[in-house]
Write the structure tokens for this entry.
Amino acid sequence: MPQTTVKIPTPLRSFADGKAEVALDAETVGAAIRRLTDDHPGLRRHLLTGDGALRSFVSVYLNDRDIRTLQRDATPVADGDVVSIVPAIAGGTSGELRASSSSRGGTIALAPERPFTQDELRRYSRHLLLPEVGVTGQHALRRAKVLLVGTGGLGAPAALYLAAAGVGTIGLVDFDAVELSNLQRQVLYSTADVGRPKLDAARARLEGLNPTIEIVPHGAHLDASNALDVLKGYDVVVDGTDNFPTRYLVNDACVLLGKPNVYGSIYRFEGQVSVFDARRGPCYRCLYPEPPPADLVPSCAEAGVLGVLPGVVGALQATEAIKLIVGVGEPLVGRLLLYDASSMSFRQLHLEKNPGCVLCSPKATQHGLIDYPAFCGVANSAPALGIPEVTPEELHDELARPDPPLLVDVREPEELEISHLEGALAIPKGELPERVDELTRARSVVLFCRSGGRSADATKTLLDLGFQNVRSLKGGINAWAERVDRSLPTY
Ligand SMILES: [Zn+2]
């Protein structure tokens, strides 16, 4: 039987004894995945549906080909083939085509260009010396309008390079304030900016870097009601978001408006980059028709990220945006670039348009924007979903009484080293279904995590398993630290 290597992505390695790859014998890709889930049952719910089919938010590649463009599960495997599992990852952090006005190609009538000033010529001299950019390309950059959705880990380095390159109009979408924990990777901001709105701090920094360009802040939360209006004024969109609802929103708006979407995402040590341009290649929905369930994907705030990783990925996104504007090189259309910082390797997977894509195929059934939080299953807060919560103050009182609730810490082991609650039983959220036996004797259980999201999911898991007296600590251990025990650090 042929021997194949199955590459396991970082988010799933904890379900495969930490392995990055597994060698196994199988005749087909489907058989290889089933062998893998037989050997590592914890992987099953991440990869397969109840009836054993591959889940739609997991892409599987044989070498560099998506098996959906081959024979799917039945795709035969040859000796030495590599099967890659590529899950959807949301991360930015927290958070094209060439520009339609580009002069290359000569199809668009242009107003006469204002000549560059002496200062501009000096500022851009290393571009002007580069034959692939030159004066024509630099003019294209000055005319271009690029929108950065998110000014966090990915948007920060992308914004710096686009401003430095002389992109004439840079729109910024963000509504957060700078936090101390951002500075590990969001290189747009300085310590003095902590507490300041990101848009104000970003604008000041970018205008300081290049006063000849225009920075346009968009401080509203981007949603289905305003996305088309915001995006329509731009030539290229750079997606630096950190959550699935906004990713799908940005993708859909770009497809509907016919704009290129320079995609980047990060997770721990790994990044993905592509250019989605539905006019000549796949869109994000072609790759991932549906988002993963909210409870299967940790965010960067939960999972951590190597600070320099978004720097690399954001710089790659800026590179692709500049190439699209100037009209040079081969854009990443139809290719997914995977970057692994820990092994320092880049791989490329070939992407094809999904002939059944609901958005960008001839069979499209979606012709407008939709309700993205509902689509991604994150519409409801814990109380709206009927998940019982307890406040830090209430929990504090209950712990002082006889027969206090059992505390269960569902965070990852690394987080326990930052802060912990005395007497809490540590069971990472992913291990909970296998370790419920440890809870059955408790009269009541309170689950907690960093800020209350994972513990709400875990509470729902236990309620679904038939547990009665289970609650989630509202706001997590960070809220406890702020309101009950100020000696505990927050993170
Ligand atoms: Zn599509």
Notes: The longest helix spans residues 308-326. Residues 91 and 265 are 5 Å apart (CA to CA). Residues 93-109 have pLDDT under 50 and may be disordered. The chain has three domains: 3-87, 118-375, 389-483.
